[in-house]
Amino acid sequence: MDGHMDGQIDSVTPTTLDEPVSETILRDLRSVYSKLRVVLAPSNVRATSYEDNEALKLLKDWDLWGPLLICLILSVLLSVDAGSHGALVFSAVFMLVWVGAAIVTLNAQLLGGSISFFQSVCVLGYCVFPLVISAFVLLLLHTFVNSIILDLVIVTLAFIWSTRASVVFIGQFISEERKTLAVYPVFFFYIFLSWMILI
Amino acid sequence: MATDGPETLDFVNIPQQTSSSTPLSLNPSTSNSSIPNPSSQTSLPPPSIFTSPTSTISTSSHPSLALLHLLSKSVPVLLYIFGTVFTSNFIFLFVLLILLLASDFWLTKNVTGRRLVGLRWWSTVNEDGSTQWIYESSDHQNPNKSDSSIFWTFLYLPFLVWSLFLVLGFVRLKFQWLPICLVSLSLSGANIYGYYKCSKEQKGKLDYLVKQGMEEGLRGAMGSGAFRGAVWDVFTTGNGKGYETVPGQQV
């Protein structure tokens, strides 16, 4: 489920197939990890030097493993706290993340953006990661203190972080005038997720 | 309609080669015994995994891969059906199933397709952001027959099984299981679509099967007077009065 392939078209003796499975898994894990780091530090993307454009290049190599893991972790975290409705919350959050990402992507594409479907879903999925961190922090926090103000602060911080990261990436592909139009759905998507975390 | 004996009550009348008491069973020693033989001798269907499983796997050129392909598709199905017997933790099952389905997708796309049938599909992203899908087939013209039969059977079969589960889930109102079915359908559907586009040979085989099926069904149906009467009825007045004018039909 990767967007990058070796240039070799020889399909009978492929270069990456002969590597042991552990190497393949490690390669994918490293790719996921580096993307997460890029998401967590999005301020690099605005600079135009070559090293910082690496971040953009990295996100061109979309893969869906990261969003899948993030979505699963988020669903697990949210359902742990939900008590008797755990299973339903889990399925609902899972579907919500994927369907929401798909809708936001469609919107961006209809606005004439030059980003591919899977790239955008990938970016949106990865940018949910700060919200996942906040959900985890909240879970730990609730064992000590049950302050709604603190919850709000943490989730708001994470929400701003996520939205900013994804806007910076998607904004690269959409023209200036349409940028706010494209940003709104992203905004709502993350608001909805934050609300689910708060509840 | 008067009761005129067994012929008019049979909807389809396929000539029986064996006695009617032998059940359709897996008989490993003789392959193709339960499939009605097509009358043409030019190309028999390859030994099916269902009629001779052990010989099919052993004649494959990558037996362990074939078995892996088979297992990676059956295990999620079995887990879906029987998982609740072993654990009451729905979330654990869900996560396990999703991970199994994802790894099965990866396996089919990257490993078994390449090794068993020499086909490959992937996508690249162009500079302007559009996605380009690439379909590849190897130059070897003679894939191992057991390999391809195992591969294609277990590519289409899980899709059908999971569609059935989806429908059952709706009907039984077990909505929390539906995302799993949807995920599985989209993953296996993606694989089917990719490999289908790769393989022209497979298209030909499907056409052959569809034609065979239709011919078999029509041949059997034509032998029954009741069916002829019903078809005639459709083409005449359609109000039931067409019965009297059907040739050979005893009402």
From TrEMBL, chain A:
<comment type="similarity">
    <text>Belongs to the YIP1 family.</text>
</comment>
<feature type="domain" description="Yip1">
    <location>
        <begin position="56"/>
        <end position="196"/>
    </location>
</feature>
<protein>
    <recommendedName>
        <fullName>Protein YIPF</fullName>
    </recommendedName>
</protein>
<feature type="transmembrane region" description="Helical">
    <location>
        <begin position="181"/>
        <end position="198"/>
    </location>
</feature>
<dbReference type="GO" id="GO:0000139">
    <property type="term" value="C:Golgi membrane"/>
</dbReference>
<feature type="transmembrane region" description="Helical">
    <location>
        <begin position="117"/>
        <end position="141"/>
    </location>
</feature>
<feature type="transmembrane region" description="Helical">
    <location>
        <begin position="148"/>
        <end position="175"/>
    </location>
</feature>
<dbReference type="GO" id="GO:0006888">
    <property type="term" value="P:endoplasmic reticulum to Golgi vesicle-mediated transport"/>
</dbReference>
<keyword id="KW-1133">Transmembrane helix</keyword>
<keyword id="KW-0812">Transmembrane</keyword>
<dbReference type="InterPro" id="IPR006977">
    <property type="entry name" value="Yip1_dom"/>
</dbReference>
<keyword id="KW-0472">Membrane</keyword>
<feature type="transmembrane region" description="Helical">
    <location>
        <begin position="87"/>
        <end position="111"/>
    </location>
</feature>
<dbReference type="Pfam" id="PF04893">
    <property type="entry name" value="Yip1"/>
</dbReference>
<dbReference type="InterPro" id="IPR045231">
    <property type="entry name" value="Yip1/4-like"/>
</dbReference>
<dbReference type="GO" id="GO:0005802">
    <property type="term" value="C:trans-Golgi network"/>
</dbReference>
<feature type="transmembrane region" description="Helical">
    <location>
        <begin position="64"/>
        <end position="80"/>
    </location>
</feature>
Automatic annotation (TrEMBL), chain B:
<keyword id="KW-0812">Transmembrane</keyword>
<dbReference type="InterPro" id="IPR008564">
    <property type="entry name" value="TVP23-like"/>
</dbReference>
<feature type="compositionally biased region" description="Low complexity">
    <location>
        <begin position="14"/>
        <end position="55"/>
    </location>
</feature>
<feature type="transmembrane region" description="Helical">
    <location>
        <begin position="150"/>
        <end position="171"/>
    </location>
</feature>
<dbReference type="GO" id="GO:0009306">
    <property type="term" value="P:protein secretion"/>
</dbReference>
<dbReference type="GO" id="GO:0000139">
    <property type="term" value="C:Golgi membrane"/>
</dbReference>
<keyword id="KW-0472">Membrane</keyword>
<feature type="transmembrane region" description="Helical">
    <location>
        <begin position="77"/>
        <end position="107"/>
    </location>
</feature>
<protein>
    <recommendedName>
        <fullName>Golgi apparatus membrane protein TVP23 homolog</fullName>
    </recommendedName>
</protein>
<comment type="similarity">
    <text>Belongs to the TVP23 family.</text>
</comment>
<feature type="transmembrane region" description="Helical">
    <location>
        <begin position="177"/>
        <end position="196"/>
    </location>
</feature>
<feature type="region of interest" description="Disordered">
    <location>
        <begin position="1"/>
        <end position="55"/>
    </location>
</feature>
<dbReference type="GO" id="GO:0016192">
    <property type="term" value="P:vesicle-mediated transport"/>
</dbReference>
<keyword id="KW-1133">Transmembrane helix</keyword>
<dbReference type="Pfam" id="PF05832">
    <property type="entry name" value="DUF846"/>
</dbReference>
